[in-house]
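Supplementary Data S3. Sequence and structure tokens for construct A.
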Amino acid sequence: MKKFAVIVAGGSGSRMNNPTPKQFLLLKGKPVLYYSIHTFLKSYDDMQVILVLPEDHIAAGQEIIDAFFENSRIKITIGGSTRFHSVQNGLKLADEESIVFVHDAVRCMLSIDLVHRCYDAAMENGSAIPVISCKDSVRIVSAHGNESLDRSAVKLVQTPQTFHSKILLPAYQIDYKDKFTDEAMVVEAFGLKVKLVEGEENNFKITRPADLLIAEQLL
């Protein structure tokens, strides 16, 4: 089946203490954004990448594509005011029945194996949300105080969140709500359940300077 990877690269460099958005920072001589694109293109020969960028960084994204990739398999579109609207814009280019991956560009340590695992699960179940177990003790805070939770029942959510287009595209026609922080929440609000699959410890987000150092060592 046709495959689209919608890579959302709308973050800023605020927590990196760097004016350059984190997806454009260099990691082993290549922009962070390069690694996610590379992994998706290598995972399947018929994978198409849809890169969602802030309008004022379109030119920088095009330079990365021109420098490192055969751009016939990559399209760029402009992001929106929220993640929901950025993904919505990207999905407009997923114009065939397909399996659609939605991925954070700054999860640059994504593996081909995880892409394949998500694809297989989405083909079977309609969706695949990679998660990892929580290692820390967890407490929930409310107006009445706080209480501990059973951490074995808590999962940490990653990307690529993967869906059959017949599920994801209609789901993104619903009205936006502030609580929508990922695609799984949108699909659940649309009235459908999602399938969890095993994620990877190394599939972390680059958010702080130390994360770049860890990714460099892993590479």
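Construct B, processed identically:
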Amino acid sequence: MLRTFVSLVLRLCRISGLSATLLTVASMMICGGDIAEAQLPTIGSIERIDSRLDLIVSLDAEMEVLAAGHEWTEGPVWVPALEGVLYSDIPNNAIYLWREGGPASLWLQPSGYTGEAPRGGESGSNGLLLDHEGGLLLAQHGDRRIARLDSSWDAPVASFETLVREFEGKRFNSPNDLAVNANGDLYFTDPPYGLEQGIEDPAKELDVHGVYRLTVGGSLTQVISDLPRPNGIAFSPDQGTLYVSNSGLPPVIMAYDVTSSGDLSNGRVFYQSWGDGLAIDQQGNVYVAGPDNGVLIISPDGELLGSLNTTQRTSNCAFGDDGYTLYITSDMHLLRIRLNVKGVGF
């Protein structure tokens, strides 16, 4: 009953226009101020298609609502230095921080567009990632670049180092998501979603919506050029496979072999589905955000095991905490669920 009441109040707060932070505070106040004692509100359900899912998601597992009231959340990343998760609110050009026991708070603004002229559309940061040195990398829609935050964790300011902003003299469309391999090379996708007028934007310079590789030495190459809307990107546990979701037509999750030199080969359809952000666990299972209002869980062999139905559009997911927590950005929410498997990198 308490969870139902809290969920109802959160929905009413959203309608009245309260911020994400105030929504979370409202939930805590209703629950007596002790979020651990009162328990967090939950949302959605687990769809079990294959019995192997029970080894990944316990029968009593639930998706908890950590924050609400955003416009569109994306790019969750666990930051050990903060003992919390950072995530983007793209239309609001902001990054928020959530830590255990407290509400989500505004952590950085602006996050993806630093120009002085007014700008609409999806202007903020999208994908967030830690590099091998522990620095925060951002796929910035508004500034159309891959950047590194040049600031401290405890007192962040919007100071960025540009890693790359163009290919062959032409500006990127709007870098979307990122993945880093074992040697530190960065791979990222560049669909047109962050342009104010999308594919018809007069500021668009590149005809191809590519996937790129930026080496630690600063060399940039286009490694995929035949996907209409490359979106999420992630490596398999052994780094031998790169997965890329295509959110255009045809809606597919692609898999590519990664050579010892970092090049890609043998591109093939891994799973037939529209997809956004991706995450991988240590068993090689692939978590695909977006389709059917949630997160698909697909075996390394490309078999659908089940889904985390968030009941709403879902953009991305990432592992955090001790590696057993999956954080999910879903429409206006930040969610989490505890699993029985660890994410890659933990």
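The domain at 43-338 is CATH 2.120.10.30 (Neuraminidase). The radius of gyration is 19 Å.
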